[in-house]
Design brief:
The chain has 6 helices and 6 strands. The protein is α/β, with parallel strands linked by helices. The chain has a single domain (29-214), classed as Flavodoxin domain (Rossmann fold). Strand 3 and strand 4 form a beta hairpin.
Length: 217
């Protein structure tokens, strides 16, 4: 992935990958939008990725994190022995189920102060329950028949600095905790004004192709 991509990229599939056929079981593809800005650059890129998934014959279940009630992790240790978060009454219950069932996961977040957005980070931090399940209880999420793969999309206004890399490090920890051994990354610097990503020479096509490649097997 070329252009302003700054996060190290891992391919979603080998060169011999193929599109799914009608005889294949549909994939569970989920996408998280972590931007609070409606129709902003992150949202535009995510929609292109989702379009790529859809044109490959798969459906995507999307979560707009800015519109969801997600309490932050309290570091209470309540999930240490069970792998189950003890916080109740918010949107994470549905997200936990979706993450368990997912074959493909897309995380899209802007870079705020050299890291993921608060909306994204709240959801990621609540995946501490999965971390405990995998690393303390030795019960990692099963990868499924086609494996679990991911896509990280990020965009930030600063032209320099380590924001994209720092956000990418958090995304990597998120994916590996969820038994996603490989994920592709798209990261764009110096894109700040709302909708400015549309002027980027390659970003929209790269996002579309990344979504399409994500569901190849």
């Amino acid at each position: 992935m070329t252009g302003d991509t700054d996060v190290p990229t891992a391919g979603c599939a080998p060169a011999s990958a193929r599109e799914q056929t009608e005889d294949d079981e549909p994939m569970h593809v989920i996408a998280f939008l972590g931007s609070p800005r409606k129709d902003g650059n992150t949202s535009i890129l995510l929609q292109e990725a989702i379009r790529g998934v859809a044109e490959s014959g798969q459906e995507v279940k999307s979560f707009n994190l800015a519109r969801m009630k997600i309490r932050p992790c309290q570091n209470c240790g309540g999930c240490d022995k069970t792998g189950i978060c003890i916080i109740e009454g918010d949107a994470m219950s549905g997200i936990y189920t979706a993450l368990r069932e997912a074959d493909r996961i897309i995380l899209a977040s802007p870079i705020f102060f050299a890291g993921l957005s608060a909306q994204s980070k709240a959801m990621v931090d609540r995946c501490q329950a999965f971390w405990c399940e995998k690393y303390l209880l030795n019960k990692p999420l099963p990868e499924g028949p086609e494996g679990r793969k991911g896509l990280f999309i990020t965009v930030g206004g600063m032209k320099t600095g380590k924001g994209v890399e720092c956000g990418g490090a958090t995304a990597t920890a998120f994916f590996r905790t969820l038994s996603v051994p490989v994920h592709a990354s798209l990261g764009y610097r110096g894109v700040d004004a709302k909708g400015a990503i549309r002027e980027h020479p390659t970003a929209l096509q790269e996002a579309f192709e990344a979504g399409r490649d994500l569901v190849r097997i």
